[in-house]
Amino acid sequence: DVAIGRGRHVNRIGHRIHTVTRLPDADRTTVSGIPVTGVERTLVDVARDTRPDRVTAAVDGALRDLLTTEDSLHRRVAVLRGPGRAGVGAVVRALEGLEITQGGHSWLEREFLRIVADAGLPRPVTQAELARAGDHLVRVDAVFPGTRVVVEVLGYRYHRTASQMARDAQRTNALLAQGYEPYQFTYRQVVDAPHEVIATLRSALGRAA
Predict the structure, then answer these.
(1) DSSP letter string over 34-91?
(2) Three-class DSSP labels, 183-206
(3) What is the DSSP code (8-state) at residue 109?
(4) How far apart are CA 57 and CA 196, in angstroms?
(5) In a 3-state reduction of DSSP, which class is residue 132?
(6) In sequence order, what are the beta bridge partners of 26?
(7) Which of 19, 62, 86, 183 could lock onto 67 through a cystine, CB 3.0 to 4.6 A?
(8) What pLDDT was estimated at residue 40?
(9) What whole-number distance in Å separates Cα of residue 37 and Cα of residue 35?
């Protein structure tokens, strides 16, 4: 995708050409010497033709990787509002958490939030800091408000080695010591057996109530 000034007529095989009236310096940067649109402008432009869940994933990813901040996004979106900027609304909805998967820091976390919403369960708080394990804060994937029910989803990338498993055990023990009720669900459970995940959570939340 290439943006050029309006009034020029350019065709390139394998390229999609977009025309813009103006592209201020705040919307420009370079990557490896190549001029590109900045993070905030890119999110707004991409959001125009992208599914809401993917917009949320892009916004969450940009915030997680410290490519931008919520304050910077809100300020840039305020400037970019106007006719022809359909992506602005989608970015704002992602920032305000109006899309059900907002807050998930990985595809698996977002999928977990989706199946919870589809089942009609309360929306959990994501990335909450609940305890300490040694010198480190224990941040969990999700905790259900008003309960001690905690959920961790276990992807393949971060839960495989002996050290990673030892850290997981330390985190779980710290949560138990603080009176939390931690549940762990694997990638396969979330993706292939969501009914089992939901049944377990319904039971846990029922007891908590």
Answers:
(1) EEEE-HHHHHHHHHTTS-HHHHHHHHHHHHHTTSS-HHHHHHHHHHH-STT-THHHHH
(2) EEEEHHHHHHCHHHHHHHHHHHHH
(3) H
(4) 25
(5) strand
(6) none
(7) 62
(8) 93
(9) 7
Crossing angle (nearest 10°) for helices 70-80 and 39-47: 60
Q: Is residue 113 within a helix (H) or strand (E), and if so which, with residue range?
A: helix 107-118
**Two tokens at 89?**
């609304």
Question: What's the CA angle centered on 67, arms 58 and 45, to 5 degrees?
Answer: 45
Distance between CA 183 and CA 172 in Å, rounded?
9
pLDDT digits (tens, 9 = 90+) for 110-133: 889 989 999 999 999 988 888 777
- Angle at which helix 87-95 crosses helix 52-64, to 10 degrees, equals 60
25 alpha carbon, distance to own chain's centre: 28
Q: Which residues contact 131 (CB under 8 A, 6 or more apart)?
A: 137, 138, 174, 175, 177, 178, 180
- pTM reported for the whole predicted model: 0.55
What are the tokens at 86? 């359909």
- Type and span of the H or E element at 20: strand 17-20
Dig out the tokens for 170 from the structure. Answer: 């330390």
Distance CA(208)–CA(186), nearest Å, equals 23
**What's the one-letter identity of residue 120?**
G
